[in-house]
Amino acid sequence: MLARQLRAVLPRTWIRHQSSTSGSLFKDLEGSSSAAEKESADAAVYNTNADLLNHPYIKSKMDPQGKTATEELLSPLKQILYSKVLAANNGKFVNNQTVEHEGSSYELSLTPEQQKALIPSVYIQSYRIKSSWKKMYMFLRMYRQMGLTEAITQSHFSSRRMARDVANMLERGRDDAIKLGMNPETMHIDQIWVGKDGNDFRRIQFKGRGRTGVITHPYVHVKAILKDNQVREDRKALIKKRLDRKLWRPLRNWTIKEDDTQTPDYKW
């Protein structure tokens, strides 16, 4: 029922493109939604694109919902202890800290992988960008560990063509951070990388003496992970601690002293 209604509204070319791919929109709408959503979707009439955007499945894809990793990684008791440790240290987790709960003392210990997964972050991905990965890699080097607002400003003032697409991606990440209850002013780009998008456009290049070549127009995509500035400060403190430690020496600076036991002969 829903597929027939959508086919009556959407253009024929768009429907043929969606049906030819493996991940069809109709299959997602009919297979992933629950029985209650199917009944409400079948009863609705989609006359315009605005009506289609009100579908619960499409709204869930457009408006991100915060996924709590604490429910997947920590038990109910550890979740309470983890929240108390964060409240005692101004939002920073301290391993093996003693916490009181219901008259008992506990020490919560988490692995570095668990601590990294529990830090709130925003994952963003760009659209298809016409550029090569070598040019994009050299351009993205300046965004490493840069603040989010500063990175958006740099993108707007850059003369590179791909800077506009990167700025659009970062602005969408900023909006998603606000929807998830995070402060974009205190966030930075923790990781950013580029990958080939595939399906490069190729055309014929005509040469002299009846010869031809192939011109390839590559396409790439950019992905990034946004995190709070506290993660960057902790990394800087760890690096400074490693650099400031004293150098270990295998032997002490002993002085040879003359005594009665020393002789010019070698002793085994």
Automatic annotation (TrEMBL):
Task: Please tell me whether the keyword Signal is annotated for this protein.
Answer: no
MF term (GO), any: structural constituent of ribosome
UniProt keywords, alphabetically: Ribonucleoprotein, Ribosomal protein
UniProt GO BP: translation
A GO cellular component annotation here is: mitochondrial large ribosomal subunit
The UniProt entry's sequence similarity note says: Belongs to the universal ribosomal protein uL22 family.
Name this polypeptide is given: 54S ribosomal protein L22, mitochondrial
Q: Which organism is it from?
A: Wickerhamiella sorbophila
